[in-house]
Amino acid sequence: MCFDVLFWKEPPIRDKLRINNRIRVREVRLIDENGEQVGIITTRDALDMAHDRDLDLVEVAPNASPPVCRLMDYGKYRYEQTKKEREARKNQKQVELKEIRMQPRTDTHDLQVKVNNARRFLEEGHKVKFSVRFRGREITHPEIGRDMLEQIAEDLRDHGVLEQKPTLEGRAYSLIMAPSPSKTQPAKRSDKPAPPSSLGDIDFDAEDEDQQAG
């Protein structure tokens, strides 16, 4: 049986899945558009079936023997995948490194304000870098900056974890804190079975007696 190849929609080169006439093997294990096993048939018969139903033949498991293909509207599938990827990027939270600068002479009130700001940054999922900068002869007493940073880390231990311990960098002592893992909300588990993927749940171990004549 011959068919008009002009009707076939070929995927962009960047797509990893082979579809329609790009599938070169002699036979495939076919899954229909409803996720039902059709069995092992010749690739030509599978293409005819896809063409008759105005669908695409998509190779979903090229390493199986024989390769597993599925009938689907490939253009619609690609559109849905692109939409999901766009939404995922939109909802992805960007982690920033917030820097809070201090001096050895920073008074208690100002220091508490900075700690409160850092607590808010950590709760929002950002990292925080504290820097105690020394001027002039203040550098002769770097332990003052180290002690300040150690106290800050202690005050924030319920909201963050120490990613970089107090380190002297030039004329500044600094440390970095990251959000505490315990503040991360775990994904809710459900007793309901997971829905099949967009490519369907495929049984690669189906018996060969399902084979149909090519």
Keywords:
four-stranded mixed β-sheet; 4 helices; Ubiquitin-like (UB roll); disordered N terminus; single chain; 214 residues; alpha/beta; Translation Initiation Factor IF3; 8 strands
CATH topology of the domain at 97-179: Translation Initiation Factor IF3
Q: What proportion strand?
A: 15-25%
Please, what is the oligomeric state?
single chain
Number of E strands: 8
CATH superfamily of the domain at 97-179: Translation initiation factor 3 (IF-3), C-terminal domain
> What is the top-level CATH class of the domain at 97-179?
Alpha Beta
Brief characterization of the structure:
This protein is an alpha/beta fold and 214 residues long. The protein has helices spanning 43-52, 74-91, 108-123, 142-155, and strands spanning 27-31, 37-42, 56-61, 68-72, 97-102, 127-133, 160-169, 172-179.
What does this structure look like?
The protein is α/β, with parallel strands linked by helices. Among the domains are: 20-84, Ubiquitin-like (UB roll) (Roll); 97-179, Translation initiation factor 3 (IF-3), C-terminal domain (Translation Initiation Factor IF3). 27% of the residues lie in helices and 25% in strands. A four-stranded mixed sheet has the order 2-1-4-3. The chain has a four-stranded mixed sheet with strand order 5-6-8-7, with helices on one face. The longest helix has 18 residues, at 74-91. The radius of gyration is 30 Å and the shape is rod-shaped.
